Amino acid sequence: MEGQSSAKRGSDEDLVQLLFEAGQGNQESFALFYDHTVRRVFGLAQRILIDTELSEDATQEVYLQVWKAAGQYVRAAGTPMAWLMTIGHRRAVDKVRSQQRSSDREARYTAVSGDVERDDVVDSVTGRLEAEAVVECLDTLTGRQQESVKLAYYGGLTYRQVAEKLGAAVPTIKSRIRDGLLRLKDCLEVS
To answer: Which domains does the chain possess?
Structure first.
């Protein structure tokens, strides 16, 4: 009984005892270990991942690993918190890498599949009007709008690719294209 009351305080010795008991399948000891340490593990995950949901997922995965590996903890290798924070750090970094790989795959797919972000206004304008009228109206745009619209719709580039090519931010390019399309719509008298 005395060991259990001291385990509620959360010192290194208490955490070692809780881990030992959790390694033997004691759920109450694992719950106490969790209660003493979860704030620090979640805080670490939050600093690395930023996203709250990802941080919660990573924290849950850390404690699942701890439950499975509690019996393998070796005191000589370091304190329970050092061991736990190492697991937490590795899990959060793995999540970051996984997210990056997912983003890279999506970018490769978009590049290969030729998905081009288009606007229905331009599609309907080019379908209904002669090329001459479009060229005339393009001349009414500012130079930057004209360049952005041409790269996006005649060059087949995405907003991101246009932004990279022109050295501008994606939101800036989206605004230029949107404003340019509105001017084209007015010029071509498209409803």
So the answer is: 2-113 (1.10.1740.10), 120-188 (1.10.10.10)
